[in-house]
Design goal:
The chain has helices spanning 65-75, 95-112, 117-120, 142-150, 161-167, 220-233, 271-291, 310-321, 324-332, 337-345, 381-388, 415-422, and strands at 17-22, 42-47, 52-57, 82-89, 128-135, 176-184, 187-196, 209-214, 249-254, 299-306, 357-362, 365-371, 374-375, 392-398, 402-411. It is an alpha+beta fold. The protein has a six-stranded mixed sheet. The chain starts with 16 loop residues before the first strand and ends with a helix.
Length: 426
């Protein structure tokens, strides 16, 4: 039921990145389906020596062992030579065994990548970042995963982005990936990224799982700063249901394979165009997540302006975006403007109702719903209903006169959202 999103096409290879996927039957019950043809659910990514990697991760107190290992490896400043990603099992709330299992999978991935002991010894961890997504509270099927990884070294290829985007899916209905290029000092630099996410979406740092690689050369500290800024402008602006995952991870990779000048500090002239391209790509992936929200029938952009600062604008926008009453009204195409005022009024910021203006807009037109805290004099419910009948909707809220503005992307709540989550483990 994705809203105006198609499977990716024309994905570009990123020099220095190779990918491979396999069916390891990671999800519980999948092993019993031997007679069926299982879909790929395990991804191995090989990074060229010298690549730099940055990441931001969930702020959940139940952060999964893979997240903890990623943090440790990146904090130690150790070079990263690969990524291993599984869907179907989050390996979260699994205690010491979860960490041990994640390490075993990383070691198997390192062997498949031909990484020797000297490269793995710096902090006592294999130089491979692990990522898991799926059911919480179940242990990884390590034997099946390591067996699958053993056969992936010969399948690694630079043009496997589409397969990888499909392999990391859980309840997603469409793989999410995109490519772009940017000119840096006369050199064409390629960026390709992929993401997964459809439910349990309220990032508190970045998103579900997202990976973007480029062939620019960027020093690790600079890449980390860029990663945090890009996440804040893209993945931290999308929500489906207000729930933050235990496994949210967003990773940037710079292989350095392009002949563009290396970006070694924040003053490098090439940094701004690269960051702009990374942000645009991340925004596209973030919006795709909202468009493919579980059971989504409408994609919604919420703009809030005029609050005392950007954080206040964002707080109002988030409150609207996660309101179940508003989201169900959007699903019904019901211009119940009282639900808009209700959500605005419960935002955790100071608001003067007399300063509030609310507009609904789509390809069917633009309607002023409320002004000065009351229904607008010119408001006609039939006009608002026509606007809300479209699959893409914009809600514009003005709460004051300050020159501030923030945007959040979300979707509606449909009957299908309940069905998907009621049957999630089956």
């Amino acid at each position: 039921m994705a809203v105006a999103i198609a499977p990716p096409s024309a994905l570009l290879t990123v020099p220095g990145v190779r990918l491979a996927t396999a069916a390891a039957r990671v999800k519980a019950h999948a092993a019993a389906a031997d007679a069926e043809s299982p879909r790929d659910d395990l991804t191995l990514i090989d990074l060229a020596p010298g690549s730099t990697v940055a990441g931001v991760f969930t702020q959940s107190h139940f952060a999964a062992p893979p997240v903890q290992l990623c943090r440790e490896l990146l904090a130690a400043g150790q070079s990263v030579r690969g990524l291993v990603i599984n869907s179907g099992n989050a390996n979260a709330a699994t205690g010491p065994a979860g960490r041990s299992n994640a390490l075993s999978v990383c070691s198997a991935a390192a062997r498949a990548l031909g990484i020797g002991e000297p490269e793995a010894a710096a902090v006592g961890l294999p130089p491979v970042l692990p990522f898991s997504t799926g059911v919480i509270g179940e242990h990884l099927p390590v034997a099946r995963m390591t067996t699958a990884l053993d056969g992936l070294s010969k399948k690694l290829a630079p043009d496997r982005w589409d397969a990888a985007a499909r392999a990391i899916m859980t309840t997603d209905t469409v793989p999410k990936a995109a490519s772009t290029q940017v000119d840096l000092a006369g050199v064409q630099v390629t960026l390709t990224g992929m993401a997964k996410g459809s439910g349990m979406i309220e990032p508190n740092m970045a998103t579900m799982l997202a990976f973007i690689a480029c062939d620019a050369a960027v020093a690790a500290p600079v890449l980390q700063q860029v990663c945090e800024r890009v996440a804040e402008r893209s993945f931290n602006r999308v929500t489906v249901d207000g729930d933050t995952s235990t496994n949210d991870s967003f990773v940037l990779i710079a292989t350095g394979a392009a002949e563009a000048p290396p970006i070694e500090d924040a003053d490098a002239p090439e940094l701004e165009p690269l960051e702009q391209a990374l942000t645009a790509l991340a925004v596209k992936l973030a919006q795709d997540i909202a468009r493919d929200g579980e059971g989504a029938t409408r994609f919604v952009t919420i703009n809030v302006s005029g609050a005392t600062d950007d954080d206040a604008c964002l707080a109002v926008a988030r409150t609207l975006a996660i309101s179940p009453l508003l989201k169900t009204a959007i699903f019904a195409g019901d211009p119940n403007w009282g639900r808009l005022c209700m959500a605005i009024g419960r935002a955790p910021v100071a608001i003067d109702p007399d300063a509030v203006e609310v507009y609904l807009a789509s390809t069917a037109g633009r309607v002023c719903v409320a002004r000065a805290g009351m229904v607008a004099d010119e408001y006609l419910e039939a006009d608002a209903a026509a606007v809300m009948a479209e699959p893409e909707l914009t809600i514009d809220v003005k709460v004051g006169e300050c020159p501030t503005r923030q945007t959040v992307w979300t979707c509606d709540y449909s009957y299908e959202y309940v069905k998907i989550n009621a049957e999630y483990r089956t």
